[in-house]
Amino acid sequence: MTEPTSYERLAESDYQARAAAVFASVESTLDRWLDDDVIDIDAHRTGGLLELAFPGGGRIVLNTQPPLQEIWLAARSGGLHFRCVGGRWIDTRGQREFFEALSECATEEAGKRLRFVAPD
Predict the structure, then answer these.
(1) Residues 6+ apart with CB under 8 A from 93
(2) Spatial separation of the C-alpha atoms in residues 72 and 61, rounded to whole Å
(3) CATH homologous superfamily for 12-110?
(4) CB-based burial label for 34 (10 Å; 0-12, 13-18, 19+)
(5) Taking the model in full, what pTM does it have?
(6) What are the extents of the domains in the chain?
(7) pLDDT (tens place) for every residue of the chain, 120 residues total
(8) Measured distance CA(77)–CA(87) in Å, rounded
(9) Of 6, 4, 26, 109, which Cα lies nearest the Cα of 71?
(10) Is residue 4 within 8 Å of 97, Cβ to Cβ?
C-alpha cells in the first residue's frame, strides 16, 4: 500500500491560480485536438466546473473545491479527489497524478488513447 502523502496548504490565491492553470491546460489540449482532428470533445466551463462531453455521450466533470483545496474528477469509472503536492495534483487515495488519471478516464470515454499533460 502506498504511504499517505503530505498535502500542502496553499494561500487561497495560490490554490485558485493553480486550479485555473489545470483547467486552462485541459481546455488548451482539447482545442489542439480539435484543430488537429484528433477528437471533438465539447467543453463547457462555468466558474469552478468544467464538463467534458465526448462523442457517444460520455462525460467527465472536473470541479474545484476551494474549502478543501482540491480538484475533483468524476467519470464513469468513479470519482477522484486531488490535492496539491510539490506543485502536482495527486489523488488523495490512489496517489495517481491528475493528468495521468484524466488521460485514463478520457481514453475510456473516447475509445482511443488520449493523453493530457501537466502545464509547464
Answers:
(1) 80, 81
(2) 8
(3) Frataxin/CyaY (3.30.920.10)
(4) middle
(5) 0.91
(6) 12-110
(7) 344 456 768 899 999 999 999 999 999 999 999 999 999 999 999 999 999 999 999 999 999 999 999 999 999 999 999 999 988 999 999 889 999 999 999 999 999 999 999 987
(8) 26
(9) 26
(10) no
